[in-house]
Amino acid sequence: MKPLLGHRRPVPAQVAVYAFVIVPFLALLAAVPVAWGRGLAWLDVVLAVSFYVVTCLGATVGFHRYFTHGAFKAHRWLRITLAVAGSLSVQGPILHWVADHRRHHAFSDQEGDPHSPWLFGTSPAALVRGFWHAHLGWVLNRDLTNQERFAPDLLADRDIRIVHRLFGPLTVVTLAAPALLGGLITWSWWGAATAFFWAGLVRVTALHHVTWSVNSVCHMIGDRPFAARDRSANFWPLALLSMGESWHNLHHADPTCARHGVLPGQIDVSARLIWLFEKAGWAWDVRWPTPKRLARIRLQNA
User: Measured between alpha carbons, how far is 101 from 215 in angstroms, rounded to an integer?
Assistant: First the structure.
């Protein structure tokens, strides 16, 4: 069997990781005083929400449900579009992302899981350390998951290898595009600057922490109506912001299911987008939940 870990992240790439984490976070800290000082316009809100939705769905529908778990099949153009949209979320190149997540499922909440909050014990101090590790600490680890073991199918795909190599330029695009639009629409440098701040930096860091919260919070707090071999849980406050990803217990109980929010009232925007893809004929063989499938994994006392 191929080893769990591959090569280590080169130093320049490691410096870039710290920059991707720290710089947007500093922007988020500055957001409140900037808004208080009238540095937030309706255009900034519209751009930030628009880029958040597109890039979040690129990660949830593309990187996660499609590339990692094969919840549906898609035409080549949609496959490439989802890979690009996911890359614009600035959560790392697609091959790294998919390999990490498949490894997470292979060793969920056990030794070998790259981001479980339960790896250090159950004492208060251990849980604080575990939360930090699951939320952000693991991102800063230089050891990379072995792609040949966990993502050989994507390694063999020329289109995906190209998108993987274009992660740097796509990061520039996801930060520069809001600034360009803000500048052109307002025809001012100030409009470009505030759009870059809100729809670029703040949007990226907000999406980062929502995604990382699925790794941390959704393995510690919430309901567990389905039988999973780990501590994955449903955390409803994140459902809309995560586009349905925080219905995490069902996902771990049935990883290839295209819909995570399967119970009444569970909003799952990602599943609705997949449904639209299917209706348009762009996606097929969608793995939708069925009563029989759900009954098999539903806990009797839930």
Answer: 10
Domain that includes residue 24, residue range: 5-297
Distance CA 99, CA 155 (A): 10
Give the pairing type, strands 283-284 and 73-74.
Answer: antiparallel
Give the residue among 217, 215, 288 at the shortest CA–CA distance from 254: 288
Cβ atoms within 10 A of the Cβ of 240, count? 13
Give per-residue pLDDT as tens, 72-103. 999 999 999 999 999 999 999 999 999 999 99
Place of tokens 């567990």: 224
279 within 8 A of 250, measured Cβ to Cβ? no
Would residue 149 count as lying in a domain?
Answer: yes
21 located within any domain: yes
Does 302 fall in a domain?
no
> Quick one: DSSP state of residue 122?
S
Domain count, the chain: 1
Residue 300 reports pLDDT greater than 70: no
Q: How far is CA 298 from the centre of its chain?
A: 26
Residue 57 and residue 100: Cα distance in Å, rounded? Answer: 19
Residue type, 183: G
Q: Enumerate the β-bridge partners of residue 283.
A: 74
Within a domain: 102? yes
Say how far apart CA 228 and CA 50 lie, in whole Å.
34
